[in-house]
TrEMBL record:
Record-annotated Potassium channel domain positions: 210-281, 343-414
Entries under PANTHER family matching the protein: OUTWARD-RECTIFIER POTASSIUM CHANNEL TOK1, POTASSIUM CHANNEL, SUBFAMILY K
Keywords for this protein: Ion channel, Ion transport, Membrane, Transmembrane, Transmembrane helix, Transport
Any one GO MF annotation of this record: outward rectifier potassium channel activity
Residue ranges of the TM segments: 42-72, 93-116, 128-147, 159-182, 202-220, 227-244, 256-274, 332-354, 360-378, 390-410
GO cellular component: plasma membrane
InterPro entries with a match to the protein in the record: 2pore_dom_K_chnl, K_chnl_dom
Protein name: Potassium channel domain-containing protein
Keyword Transport: yes
């Protein structure tokens, strides 16, 4: 496999300037894809690596369930008497048994890989070969039976159509796994499914759901005196809460059993829906957002270099914020568009199938499918033929849960859009917003970098907040547009601060000179005593940012707050990158990623405090007369996580 470039994956940047736990997307997923983050191929292989295994995990157990129905159901009946039926030639039954056995074995192999009991290469080889053989056997079975053993007053039953559906599902499993294996063979990702550990349990839930359907089919076929295939259709209608009313329980015992069965089915289906929705939310939207930001950012940098444009730090920040706003709008537009496209596809596909299977008009078929998708069953139109009921089982199990998950995700996006519209209307008509628990938070944030009084009592806190509330009209708004009117460079690059000292340093020699003169000088701005004096300010900053994080989950730092945070966190190791005028558009910019900005600020300040406390610990030991400085081992080979745990242990021992 090709060696993955960390620069392409963006992992290096995230490790340096953002902590994974505060990112709005899962960097581990992105890090597996061996494609440039800004390329179109990245999106395709990300979808293949993440979603194709989920699709297979849902189709495999359902294919086995329907394959059981096509095995136990008789395939043809004679004349108009449905009671006069048979399985067809014995060879048909033998092939069905072999197909079910191979398909079931392939599904077991997939489960073993999902729980990390079997390697990727072995499981993929067995699965692709097994499901291809099972699907081909059913296809041959169906084609031969339809050509030789039907006609002349011999008709196909629901068992035949279940065989058609099972064959299609087996081929679907083969297709998704084959595409995934091709991606691995081309070196696009390592030999594994791009799923987190908790997401791999989705396969177990789909297996339990399949067992539940098989149990319902067997139980209700005896109680309601119907065939297994019809009972499977009844079980599907009950679990999906459609309630068509064409088959109903007729005694107390059956009603009790249907209540228990429906309850278990709805709970299991709800868990599958919740996990599917979680995977969609945590991966799709945020990953596409990062991709679009990266594409626009690189395009902007190319235009800047092409036209030799000089940007100030504020101009670079404004360009990056505009890129993020466009990416968010595009993300919302894509979410709504894809949802509508999938909805219309399932709606029309179902209507087309029911039109021919049930001999309905196309409008009535559309009407029936629409009611099923929103789980309303009036019962005026119900599938009665074997083809219609077999197709309904497959179509409804895919369409109804998927629509619920996607519509719920879109609902969240529309809710966020409505909140943004409310804020826009408030600003347009100069409506006064309801104050938060801690008003004037922006003034408080500006003050945290100049105050050193950390240990306020409650009375002082109340007085401070009340004063901030009284002067809230003078505070800058969180909206970045408010900064344009009263922005002053001196507010960020004050005389004597780190950023002002580095403003004119553009080459490596000047930076190295600064490093030697400032870092190694005992009484410089980087000296131990200077750092110790900053501890109260850091503590105060943590208090304020944590308060904002609790009160405003989607709070965005302003330009001034970002610069003050970078000024506070700057060090000789990163000051050259931070002082770059194009920093906000560079590979080091934290604005490339969706993240919780207040939590990010707290994490960076905690890291700064950790380094201060480590120095305090070492200095206190060095001042001891019997202190002997231990030899430091080479930690370059120690994993990053281990070094972090070691540092935390040292800090906690103070």
């Amino acid at each position: 496999m090709k060696k993955r470039s960390e620069k392409k994956l963006g992992r290096k940047n995230v490790d340096n300037l953002a902590f994974d736990e505060f990112l709005g997307y899962n960097n581990q997923r992105v890090g597996l894809i061996n494609e440039n983050l800004a390329s179109k191929a990245f999106i395709w292989w990300f979808v293949v690596s993440c979603y194709f295994p989920i699709i297979t995990a849902c189709m495999g157990p359902m294919a086995n369930t329907i394959s059981i129905a096509c095995l136990v159901e008789k395939w043809r009946y004679y004349g108009t008497n449905h009671d006069h039926n048979d399985f067809g030639p014995p060879a048909i039954l033998v092939v069905n048994i072999l197909s079910l056995a191979i398909g079931f074995a392939s599904n077991c192999v997939l489960v073993l890989h999902f729980v990390n009991r079997l390697s990727y290469k072995k499981s993929q080889t067995i699965n692709i070969f097994g499901w291809t053989v099972a699907a081909t056997m059913l296809t041959v079975d169906v084609c031969v039976f339809a050509a030789r053993d039907t006609g002349n007053d011999r008709h196909k039953t629901i068992g035949f159509w279940y065989a058609v559906v099972a064959g299609v599902l087996y081929y679907g499993c083969t297709f998704t796994l084959l595409i995934h294996f091709i991606g691995f063979y081309l070196g696009k990702y390592p030999p594994r499914f791009n799923l987190m550990k908790n997401e791999r349990t989705l396969m177990l839930f789909t297996l339990f759901f399949a067992v539940l359907l098989i149990w319902g089919g067997g139980m209700f076929s005896r109680i309601l005196d119907v065939t297994f295939g019809v009972a499977l259709y009844f079980s599907t209608v009950s679990i999906l809460t459609v309630g068509l009313g064409d088959i109903t329980p007729n005694d107390v015992a059956t009603k009790i059993l249907i209540m228990v069965f429906s309850f278990l089915g709805v709970i299991t289906l709800g868990l599958i829906l919740a996990m599917t929705r979680s995977i969609i939310q945590e991966s799709a939207g945020s990953t596409f957002f990062v991709h679009w930001v990266e594409v626009s950012r690189l395009t902007a940098l190319d235009n800047i270099r092409k036209h030799n444009t000089e940007l100030t730090r504020r101009e670079a920040y404004d360009v990056m914020m505009n890129i993020r706003k466009r990416a968010k709008r595009r993300q919302m537009f894509l979410s709504i568009t894809v949802t509508l496209l999938i909805y219309v596809t399932f709606w029309n596909l179902g209507a087309l199938a029911f039109k021919f299977a049930e001999n309905w008009s196309y409008f009535n078929a559309l009407y029936f499918c629409f009611l099923c998708l929103i789980t309303i069953g009036y019962g005026d139109f119900v599938p009665k033929t074997g083809a219609g009921r077999a197709f309904f089982v497959c179509w409804s199990l895919a369409a109804v849960p998927l629509m619920s998950a996607i519509l719920s995700t879109v609902g969240d996006s529309l809710f966020d859009l409505a909140k943004s519209a409310d804020l826009t209307i408030s600003r347009t008509f100069h409506l006064r917003e309801v104050k938060s628990f801690i008003p004037g938070e922006n003034r408080a944030l500006n003050a945290i970098f100049t105050t050193s009084n950390v240990f306020r009592n409650n009375a002082e806190d109340n007085e401070y907040y009340n004063e901030a509330y009284d002067n809230d009209d003078d505070c800058e708004d969180n909206d970045d547009s408010q900064d344009d009117d009263d922005y002053d460079d001196s507010d960020v690059f004050d005389t004597g601060t780190l950023m002002s000292n580095l403003e004119d340093l553009t080459d490596y020699s000047a930076w190295k000179k600064f490093y030697v003169s400032e870092w190694l000088t005992p009484h410089s701005a980087y000296s131990f005593h200077s750092r110790l004096e900053k501890l109260p300010m850091l503590t105060q900053a943590i208090r304020k940012f944590r308060t904002i994080s609790r009160e405003k989950k989607n709070y965005n730092l302003s330009y001034r707050q970002w610069n003050k945070l970078l000024e506070l966190y700057a060090s000789p190791e990163n000051v050259k990158r931070v002082a770059n005028p194009r920093f906000w558009l560079s590979d080091e910019s934290p604005l490339r990623f969706p993240l919780s900005e207040p939590d990010f600020a707290v994490a960076k300040i905690f890291a700064k405090m950790e380094s201060f406390l480590e120095e305090l610990h070492e200095t206190s030991l060095e001042s001891h007369p019997n202190y002997r400085k231990p030899s430091r081992p080479d930690i370059s080979s120690i994993p990053r996580d281990s070094r972090g745990r070691h540092s935390r242990r040292r800090a906690s021992s103070i």
